[in-house]
Write a structure and sequence with these properties.
Length: about 350
């Protein structure tokens, strides 16, 4: 039944540390495969025996742009295991995609995943997404091949299924993300509905036909704060102006929701709250909400059930949430709510 209604209510983690005493056994050993070479084997994050990080080299994105602290030529992935993971019971997997200018293995991302899954029999995988917009780039130029969709869907997912005790089917797999990652989650789910049983977007910029959203993507490509080296405005989706903007239109999640039929879908967004307080984050959220409204309207027109947590200034959503774009109390409440939804749908122990 359709639930398109209001729902009430950094420093990076040291990536490769020795296993801590609290971990009774070492983390899983991963085998190469699917075009990925494991360059750093899993190691527990200090003080967090449920969570480990590892790194891979991908032939689909061999030279990602880098933020400070990222090693060249490889991708860090952070995995949070469920309590009691024993290497024999199979679990569903949530792929959680970070936003622009973020890393998968930050303290915030680690604590958010562990908090949301504390009582859930669920594996959470947080891969490196760079400034990718979770797409195969049209014109990568000097950066070389930037086939991020191929990397995540065609390489990382089968590597995880081959090495961890997952439920390797769409009935045991979900995807979600924040901001750029929210775009990526819906984008990936639309392209590969055979892979995912549930999709969630947390303040995602979902409408590439929106000129403001195109400007955000272009800014991502040009801003050194999103990684170095920088690139060009046409690198990811080609020229952003008509009549050369066919890729932007074709890859826009808001208009291509038909593929989500039969999948669980959840959208989360605030309205920015008081736009005079933290105005950049307020305005970014306010405009992201417009792209979610377009997506919600398209889902409604297609007759596809979905959950829409359109929580305004955040006052009824979570303590400390004031409806801004990159606000941890809002995002934690989004993830907590989403995990509750998908665990009622996905196969699990």
């Amino acid at each position: 039944m359709r639930t398109a209604a209001l729902v009430a209510g950094l420093a990076a983690v040291t990536a490769f540390t020795a296993p801590v005493a609290a971990a009774e056994t070492g983390p899983p050993h991963l085998a190469d495969g699917f075009g990925l070479t494991v360059t750093e084997q899993p190691a527990w994050v200090a003080g967090h025996p449920r969570t480990f990080t590892f790194a891979v080299h991908s032939d689909q994105v061999p030279t990602p742009s880098l933020l400070p602290g990222q090693p060249p030529g490889q991708h860090v992935v952070m995995v949070t295991l469920p309590e009691g993971y024993d290497g024999s019971t199979r679990y569903p997997v949530l792929y959680a995609l970070h936003g622009n200018a973020d890393l998968p293995n930050t303290q915030r991302n680690l604590e958010s995943a562990e908090s949301a899954t504390r009582s859930a029999p669920l594996i959470t995988v947080q891969p490196n997404g760079g400034r990718s917009w979770y797409s195969n780039w049209a014109n990568p130029g000097a950066l070389g091949t930037q086939n991020w969709e191929n990397f995540h869907l065609g390489q990382l997912i089968p590597l995880i299924d081959a090495n961890l005790r997952t439920i390797p089917a769409r009935t045991g797999r979900a995807i979600a993300g924040h901001s750029m990652g929210g775009f990526g989650a819906v984008h990936y789910a639309e392209h590969r509905p055979d892979l995912f049983g549930y999709v969630g977007s947390f303040s995602g910029g979902l409408d590439l036909q929106n000129p403001e959203q195109r400007a955000v993507v272009a800014e991502t490509a040009l801003d050194p704060a999103s990684g170095t080296p920088t690139t060009s405005v046409d690198a990811i989706f080609g020229p952003p102006v008509w009549p050369f903007d066919g890729i932007w239109t074709a890859q826009s999640p808001a208009q291509h929701v038909a593929a989500l039929r039969g999948m669980g879908v959840a959208l989360y967004t605030g309205n920015g709250g008081d736009l005079t307080v933290d105005p950049i984050q307020a305005v970014v959220e306010n405009r992201a909400r417009e792209t979610n409204l377009v997506t919600a309207a398209t889902l409604t027109a297609e007759g596809i059930p979905f959950t829409f947590a359109d929580y305004g200034d955040g006052s009824t959503w979570a303590p400390g949430c004031t409806g801004k774009h990159n606000q941890q109390p809002c995002l934690q409440a989004d993830l907590d709510h989403f995990v509750g939804l998908l665990m009622r749908t996905l196969r699990h122990p």
